[in-house]
Design goal:
The complex is a heterodimer of chains A (793) and B (121). Chain A has a six-stranded mixed beta sheet. Chain A has 30 helices and 22 strands. Helix content of chain A is 45%, strand content 18%. In chain B, 45% of the residues lie in helices and 21% in strands. Chain B contains five helices and five strands; from the N terminus they run E-H-E-H-E-H-E-H-E-H. Chain B has a five-stranded parallel beta sheet with strand order 2-1-3-4-5, sandwiched between helices. The two termini of chain B are 12 Å apart. The chains are: A alpha+beta (793), B alpha/beta (121). At the A-B interface, helix 1, helix 2, helix 8, helix 10 and helix 16 of A face helix 1, strand 2, helix 2, strand 5 and helix 5 of B.
Chain lengths: 793, 121
């Protein structure tokens, strides 16, 4: 990728982190946290977004961020106080800022009315006079804001690399140094008198470097006045004694000349005049040095041309000495000789300048030769350091293409299979379990498992990336339905496979919408019911039993069971006389075609019922359920496998086929007694397990491996529960054992088969099908829809 | 040997941008994410020039300037502060604290290298 684009990508990535930080800061502020560090962190986040936006010339984003930042700055300086109202406006502003970032990223537009309205709201937080003072004018007109801002974006362009600058200047310098038969006749030369003060050196500025910069502007003649240097015993290391007078020819403007002194102008006496003007003459007589030290030096060097390079080197040299601030002091003695030639107008050392120029171009050449060498080591160190900093730094990370990780996972999957095959072969060969080969294989198995776990961990990511989008959603939905909601999040750092993460967002969004829209009461209802006006929705993630569980809990009204039951009956989803437990009634809302909202609102509804949510979760091998307590609230629990790449399965055989049933579906297994099995309608079998009838599915028949069912008593019944909570018993011939299998998609390699979810390769190299328990159960239940009914005992 | 520039900025974008421009201009770049780390890195590895942001967590740019100037080994190390046009007062404060020069954001690579050249041999 173009490095500029890659930095831009980094910027947007960073923006996301900044927006998250900002939001958590603002949420803390909403809870009354007015700690200055919290406010500062929010300010810095907005400031950094603006700074980056400036570099990329993202005008709209800059403009909005600026207003936002200004308001936060007022708060930082204590001029604006945190109130509930202020926090709410800031939170909304953070949403608008997020929209601006998103728009800048996609090249889209943010609704102008929304931006202007938000800017007005932000300005409304500040006193009108103060707003004017800050340049935030009342109508939110962008022009004035930008003008005050004075932030002219300069787009970084790689077409003109930085390194070109010295090259151009070197050429100019050489041209200037080359015999100009008649120096530029047009403009009279500049005469610059430069007298550094001690403060200048204290700030690590160097006269030599300033002079070198000046020399880049044109043809220079430099004279040094060391007249102020006291005798050695009175010399103070911290003082500045030297004055330079430079004659600069060329057509540069005064501003350009003064720009060279930009960093030092307040710490030196500086005169810039056209040659021939009065001020210049005054400073000239000083040049002939008069005290003893320099006079003898002048004599020694009499007639020698000015060697600018040597002069610069000498002035610069003391930097390397232990007491660097002494720089100006020793310099005069050493540098005195060149003082004399000022009387000789042709004294510019062309050779010296060329040498300087050559050196510069050499440096440049080195630069060009080895730019990528920029010290990978240094980068690594920097990376490591970034990790070490406790406050802002994250743990050290590397970014790796997901494809590579997937390749690794596939390879490890093959390794697991190969290892299992090898073990099986070895044991089949009759080697003793205590043999070295068998023991070695055991170690190999442990190692393989460890590698597999580690590889899976690479893809694991905290659910934070999904959770962090939710506070905004909750705010928006709450605003839309006129409810007051506080979102509490737990377990954001719970990790789960990346493929699972990507698919968590939609169900969570839906459950939250549902909780706010249907679960929570209006503020008035809540108060009437003796609850606080503000409802609480808790979003939590946790690991449980090798799965990740996501819970969405509200403290609202709970499920209205009579009504749910009534609707289900009216829609023909349950029989009139169905005997259902409270839990079963609650879970009716997941049935297709069920929707409790009288008017399907576009908040939770969107024309999609909970059945769709459930199906999308089931597609991931997950399950969802609800528990509810009338008047106190409801809790949705959704559990998902931690990964979609491996599966813990029960290996069974049916009709001479080896099959795998996902362990997560299995409740128990038992040997059926003939008297517990009944036939309904002469064909469909049910089995009575602890007073409950469940369908008995002969897997061999259901998958079409054979036509005649297995006599129940000669097989094993595996009681399974589908994601929907429906139960069935799978009749198989035998259970072989439990093992982790690598999932291979059947659809990618062959085609979809009803009743089969995927395939895997077993230790002996054979392909085994993984049962789609849901499909099997659903099919059987459709055939016998009302079978599952409690026996009145 | 190439000059070493220590860049201190809490924004990764800004660090990468500085890195790109400086590396291309032939400098060796080391980085720190805030003032505290900046001073640690400077003490541990040294640098020919320090470029620091002002607004940072833990220790801001003024803290960096004071820390560098108070360290006998680095009191003559040039420090450039990153400022914006609107931060005139901050520029003055940084100067008073001992900043050698400043770089106005947003900068382009040429300006950046010019500024470094002005303060470091």
């Amino acid at each position: 990728m173009d490095p500029f684009e890659s930095i831009k990508a980094t910027f947007f990535q960073e923006c996301e982190e900044l927006l998250t930080d900002m939001e958590s800061g603002l949420l803390a502020m909403e809870q009354g946290d007015d700690d200055s560090e919290t406010i500062n962190a929010v300010f810095r986040a907005v400031h950094s977004v603006k700074g980056g936006a400036g570099a990329f010339g993202l005008e709209e984003l800059i403009r909005f961020a600026h207003v936002f930042e200004t308001v936060l700055d007022e708060m930082r300086s204590g001029k604006l106080h945190l109130t509930d109202e202020v926090a709410k406006v800031l939170l909304r502003a953070s949403d608008v800022l997020a929209d601006h970032v998103a728009a800048a990223r996609s090249g889209g537009q943010v609704d102008e009315g929304r931006t202007v309205g938000m800017i007005a709201d932000l300005q409304g937080l500040i006193d009108q006079d103060r707003a004017a003072e800050l340049g935030l004018n009342e109508d939110g007109d962008s022009g004035a804001v930008e003008e005050d801002f004075g932030f002219v974006p300069v787009v970084l362009s790689l077409d003109e690399p930085a390194a070109d600058a010295p090259e151009v200047d070197v050429a100019a310098l050489m041209a200037a140094a080359a015999p100009p038969p008649e120096a530029p006749a047009a403009a009279p030369a500049w005469r610059v008198t430069f007298r550094p003060k001690a403060e200048m050196y204290a700030k690590a500025n160097e006269a030599a470097l300033v002079l070198r910069e000046l020399a880049r502007l044109g043809d220079v003649e430099v004279a040094l006045d060391a007249g102020a240097v006291p005798p050695l015993d009175q010399l103070s290391a911290e003082q500045a004694y030297l004055t330079w007078t430079v004659r600069l020819s060329g057509d540069k403007s005064e501003a350009e000349v003064r720009e060279v002194f930009e960093f030092v102008e307040d710490d030196c006496d500086l005169e810039v005049t056209r040659e021939g003007e009065a001020a210049t003459e005054a400073s000239e007589p000083d040049i002939a040095a008069d005290d003893d030290a320099s006079a003898s030096a002048v004599e020694a060097a009499a007639g020698a041309p000015l060697d600018l390079d040597a002069l610069l080197a000498r002035v610069a040299a003391p930097t390397e000495e232990p007491a660097p601030a002494a720089a100006p002091a020793p310099a005069p003695v050493a540098a005195a000789p060149p003082a004399a030639p000022a009387q000789d107008p042709a004294s510019l050392d062309v050779a010296g300048l060329i040498a300087l120029a050559e050196k510069a171009s050499q440096d440049h050449a080195q630069t060009q030769a080895a730019p990528p060498k920029a010290d990978p080591k240094a980068d690594q160190k920097a990376e490591a350091r970034a990790a070490a900093g406790p406050a802002t730094a994250a743990t050290p990370t590397i970014r790796v293409d997901l494809d590579r990780v997937d390749r690794l996972i596939n390879a490890v999957g093959e390794l697991v299979i190969q290892q299992a095959m090898l073990s099986q072969r070895v044991f089949e060969s009759g080697l003793a379990r205590s043999s070295d080969v068998a023991l070695g294989l055991e170690d190999l198995e442990l190692l393989t498992r460890e590698i597999q776990d580690s590889v899976m961990a690479i893809r694991a990511q905290p659910v934070k990336s999904v959770f962090q989008r939710m506070p905004r959603l909750v705010r928006e939905v709450a605003d839309m339905v006129g409810k007051k909601v506080r979102l509490v999040m737990d377990g954001e750092n719970t990790e789960v496979d990346k493929t699972v993460i990507e698919r968590l967002s939609d169900p969570i969004t839906h459950m939250l919408r549902n909780a706010i829209d249907h679960g929570l009461e209006t503020p008035e209802e809540r108060e009437a019911g003796g609850k606080g006006a503000e409802g609480t929705v808790r979003l939590a993630a946790l690991h449980r039993g090798g799965r990740i569980v996501i819970e969405v809990q509200d403290d609202g009204r709970g499920i209205n069971r009579p009504r749910v039951r009534g609707i289900a009956m009216a829609k023909g989803l349950i029989a009139e006389d169905a005997v259902l437990s409270d839990d079963e009634i609650d879970n009716l809302i997941f049935l297709p075609g069920f929707s409790t909202a009288d008017v399907v609102s576009d908040i939770s509804g969107r024309g999609v019922g909970m059945d769709v949510v459930k199906r999308s979760i089931q597609a991931l091998g997950g399950r969802i359920s609800i528990t509810s307590e009338p008047g106190k609230g409801s809790k949705f629990s959704m559990s998902l496998p931690l990964t979609l790449a491996v599966l813990d399965g029960m290996v069974v055989s049916a009709a001479d086929q080896t099959l795998v049933a996902p362990l997560s579906n299995i409740v128990e297994s038992l040997t059926p007694r003939a008297e517990d099995v009944h036939l309904i309608g002469g064909r469909d079998a049910v089995i009575c397990i602890r007073d409950t009838f469940v369908p008995l599915i002969d897997v061999g028949v259901a998958l079409g491996f054979r036509d005649t069912p297995l006599p129940p008593a000669s097989g094993v019944a595996v009681l399974v529960e589908s994601e929907g909570g429906g139960k069935a018993a799978l009749l198989v011939e035998a259970i072989q054992g439990q093992r982790q299998v690598v999932i291979k998609s059947l659809e990618a390699n062959y085609q979809h088969i009803h009743g089969v979810a995927a395939a895997t390769i077993l230790g002996d190299g054979r392909v085994a099908l993984i049962l789609d328990v849901d499909a099997l159960v659903t099919t059987s239940r459709r055939k016998a829809p009302r079978i599952e009914k409690r026996m009145a005992v | 040997m190439n000059k070493t520039v220590l860049t201190i900025d809490d924004s990764r974008t800004m660090r990468e941008m500085l890195n790109m421009a400086l590396v291309q201009a032939g400098y060796r770049v080391i980085q720190a994410v805030d003032g505290v780390e900046g001073l640690e890195v400077l003490r541990a590895e040294g640098a020919d020039v320090v470029i620091t942001d002002i607004n940072m967590p833990r220790m801001d740019g003024f803290g960096v300037i004071e820390g560098v100037r108070a360290d006998p080994a680095h009191r003559a190390t040039p420090i450039l502060v990153l400022t914006t046009e609107s931060d005139a007062t901050k520029k003055e404060r940084a100067r008073a604290a001992g900043a050698t020069g400043w770089i106005v954001k947003p900068f382009n690579p040429t300006k950046l290298v010019d500024a470094i050249r002005r303060v470091a041999a």
